[in-house]
Amino acid sequence: MDNPAVDDELWAEFHRVVNMTSRELEDWLRTRDAGPETEPLPDEAGPLTGHQVLAVLRKRRSDVDDHDADVMRKVVDRVLSERRDDLEPTAGEAHWRHRLMSLGHDPLKPA
């Protein structure tokens, strides 16, 4: 049975907005924080929200809890506030793209 905290609309919208795979996001978070001399531990690289998105991507829908649902809503809202609803590939400044990629959305990736 599906989790009542996550309705069909939220599940579909989150997976439409988060267009990076869990592997792509994990690699990005690690790359984002790597420096010329040091690199953080893999589980500590990147912002907290990026790790929360990664955790949701690794779960089955039936395993998503209320906290995960809140993260999903927050990510959908943040990405859509910075993008058009059609999510067509859009080039922008590197910091803008990197900020969105830390949420699991690559604005240059086809929708």
| Count, helices | 5
Beta-strand content bin = under 5%
Low-confidence stretches: none
Structural class: mainly alpha
Q: Please count the beta strands (DSSP E, at least 2 residues each).
A: 0
Fraction of helical residues: 40-55%
The backbone outline, from C-alpha atoms, is globular
Question: Can you walk me through this structure?
Answer:
This is DUF3140 domain-containing protein. Pfam families: DUF3140 (PF11338). Residues 30-49 are annotated as: Disordered. This protein has 111 residues and is mainly alpha-helical. The chain has one domain (8-101). Helix content is 51%, strand content 0%. The chain has five helices and no strands. The chain has helices spanning 8-17, 22-33, 48-57, 66-82, 94-101. Helix 3 crosses helix 4.
